[in-house]
Structure formats: C-alpha cells, structure tokens
C-alpha cells in the first residue's frame, strides 16, 4: 500500500492545481492508472473495470485524437492480423502504432499527426479502406503492399498532401479506381500492380504527373490508349495484362522522358514503330510475349542507354541489325532477348554478343544455328504476306555520338563494354514485393 500514498498526494495536487484550468491532461492520466491497486489489499480481486475511453485531452493535439478515432474504427473492421500488428494500436499515441508515422503537416507546423501509413507486408484483411485513408486528412503516403484489402478505393480528394499511393498485391477488383483521378498533379507514385482490376484504364491516368505508374499483373483489357505516351512517368509498367492493339508511334514524343517501359505479356499487335529508336534515355524496353510483328527497325541502333531489350516471344522476322548489336560494344546493352521469333540472320557483330550470353536467338529461323524452329514452321510463317514497312535509314547516323563511330574508336583502343546495371525499377515491380 505504501507505494500508492505518494501517488495519491500527486493526484490530489494535480486535481487541485488543474481544477482551475480547462485542460485535464495530467489529472486524467493519474485518475485511473492505479484503480486496481486496492484489489491487491483486499480479499477478492474485483473484475477489472473497462478503461474509460480516451478523451481529446489525452492526446498531443486534436489531429492525433481524430486520427486515433479513425484508426480505432478501422481496427474494428480488420478480420485478420497474422502478425499481430494491431496489438500496438492502443493508447493515446497513434504516432507510435505499428505502421503509422507522424509529421507536422505544412498547414500546421506545430501539430504533428499521421502523415504516412506503411502497412507493407502486414497481411491484414479488411473489407474496405473507405472511412480509413480518406479520413486521415494529413496523409502523404499510403503503402499497403501485400495485404488482403479489397473493396472500392475511396474518394481521396480531401487529402491535399497525398502523393504516394501503393495498393499493390491486395485483393482489389472491379474497374480502375477512378477515385485517384481527381488527385491530378499532386500524385507522384501510383502502384496498383498485383490486384484484379479489370476493364479499361482511363486515358486521363496517363495525363497525371506521375513519376511511377505500375499497373502490371491485373486484368486490364483494352487497346493501348492514344494518351499513353503523353505520360510524364519515366517508369511505366503495364506488363501481364490484356492490353491489345499496336504500340502507338507517338512513343517518339516521350523520347526524353521514358526510362523503363515494360509492356511484356500482353496481346499487342502491329509492327514495331521506328520511333522506339528515339528513346534516347531508355534503359529498359521490354515487349516480350506479345503478338508484335515486322522487322527490327534500324533505329534501335540509336538506343545508346538501353541495357535490357526484350523482344522475345513475338512474330518478328528478318535480320537482326548489326547496328543493334553494336550497342553491346559501345552502348550499354547487357541483354538482347530475341528468342521465339522468326529472325533469319544476325549481323557480324552479334556473334560476340552471342558468345557472351548477351544475345539469345533460340527458337528463330536462322539457318545453321542450333535450337531453331523446325523448317516447316518457318516456311509456314513466311508463306503469309508481310505488311510492315522497313526504313533503311538510321535516324542518329549523323549524330557525332552515334555508336558506330564510337564503336570504331573503342575497338581500336581495345576498350571493354560497360558492365550492366542491376537495379531496375520496372523489373522489381514484376514481383509482388514492395517495388520502390
Ligand atoms: C488472404 O487472401 C487469400 C486469398 O483470398 C487467402 O488465401 C489468404 O488466406 C488470406 N490471408 C489471410 C491471412 O487471411
Ligand atoms: C506527337 O508529336 C507530334 C509532333 O511531333 C504531334 O503532332 C502529335 O500530336 C503528338 N502526339 C501525341 C499523342 O501527343
Ligand atoms: C535525358 O538524357 C539527357 C542527357 O543525359 C538529360 O539531360 C535529360 O535530363 C534526360 N531526360 C530526362 C527526362 O531524364
Ligand atoms: C535477359 O532478359 C530475359 C527477358 O527479360 C530474361 O528472361 C533473361 O533471364 C535475361 N538474361 C540475363 C542473362 O539476364
Ligand atoms: C494498473 C496500474 O497502472 N498499476 C500501476 C500502479 O502504480 C505502480 C507503481 O508506479 C505501477 O507499477 C503499476 O503498474
């Protein structure tokens, strides 16, 4: 009993002291903290009384109190929590809850509140995010990779600071979440990969001023929209969906913007546009596993920063241009995947790439090469008329830094090719782990 006496004194002191002030912050903290001590002195433990609900005055500021109410309401809807993260979602300090991070919003520098929610890998289940993220008005980032969230994405227009939205690897389905569109230019990162979204992606998505747009591994099904290459996003990943139609030749308009373009495993058709060769800053161009046809444009020899070029698993034919293989010498090309097409020959400088394992031409129609398609398959393919144009010019040939010229100098100087980089934003998005 002795230990409760000083506390009682303090309690009385605070109660007296604070009775004249509107705030009961400290007094409240003490008023119930040791209610059960009495039971230890008596014969019977009384049933523990439920803790009285927290009051606004228990919190550092009203915004944290509001966030607390929203979090508790959301917690009540959670149906699975295998990592027991919500066990920490108790008490008057929401900034200390697992997955919640606080900062002072720009409009209120002295009231830190929930600015970021990172549930990556928590594996929580909840039927809806409505009433949760849309009611945390100071939220700037919401990351929820690998949870079991479903239901519609709520209206987020009252979140003026939200700029990163990652709903990847959840159980969202239905139409593209139109709720993100009104966010307009405030959104920089939109990651919806590994869900079951279906239907069409509204063209206006590609007008958002995003840095990163990951739509891969959903069930989107539509012709590639005309607006696609208006997107300012350097990292575009639309892989593993049902996109159809040709690659719009307006890709040339995005020549300085695009870094990594991943369109693999869709149902794209048509010829490879010559304008792809204008993507001077691209490091990854991957359209493997589609129904693209035509010869490989000579313009591809201008892709001096390209490290990964995957055209495998299409209906491409003709020679593999020598100009493209030069990129493995003096450009940055580390992987030229052309298998499962109908190419018929390779340029002389391609041999070296073949020996280095950079170039893969298995399952084509190259006479005398190992692992090629049966002759009958090649004959059948070439028996159909071909309509794709072939421009015999290289658009960068007159540029002083054209690879051919540098190649000649490099070979003369005995220079070695550049080592490939390893960390690709787009390829990391093809796994269902957090991508960024
Ligand atoms: C998440 O959903 C999947 C598929 O609906 C299910 O197999 C899995 O058990 C769920 N996870 C948890 C932790 O409930
Ligand atoms: C691409 O640029 C050309 C001019 O170079 C312009 O006429 C065309 O409208 C642009 N296309 C798109 C889709 O912005
Ligand atoms: C494209 O590359 C050039 C030359 O390195 C660079 O100046 C420019 O900023 C790059 N463009 C983008 C959008 O990154
Ligand atoms: C080259 O790229 C293809 C297609 O993306 C991939 O399957 C292959 O593993 C890569 N090869 C190397 C050596 O990285
Ligand atoms: C229930 C409760 O909060 N009990 C506390 C009472 O005070 C003692 C001494 O400070 C604490 O050890 C108990 O946890």
TrEMBL record:
<dbReference type="Pfam" id="PF00560">
    <property type="entry name" value="LRR_1"/>
</dbReference>
<keyword id="KW-0964">Secreted</keyword>
<keyword id="KW-0732">Signal</keyword>
<dbReference type="InterPro" id="IPR051582">
    <property type="entry name" value="LRR_extensin-like_regulator"/>
</dbReference>
<dbReference type="GO" id="GO:0005576">
    <property type="term" value="C:extracellular region"/>
</dbReference>
<feature type="signal peptide">
    <location>
        <begin position="1"/>
        <end position="20"/>
    </location>
</feature>
<keyword id="KW-0677">Repeat</keyword>
<protein>
    <submittedName>
        <fullName>Uncharacterized protein At4g06744-like</fullName>
    </submittedName>
</protein>
<dbReference type="InterPro" id="IPR032675">
    <property type="entry name" value="LRR_dom_sf"/>
</dbReference>
<dbReference type="InterPro" id="IPR001611">
    <property type="entry name" value="Leu-rich_rpt"/>
</dbReference>
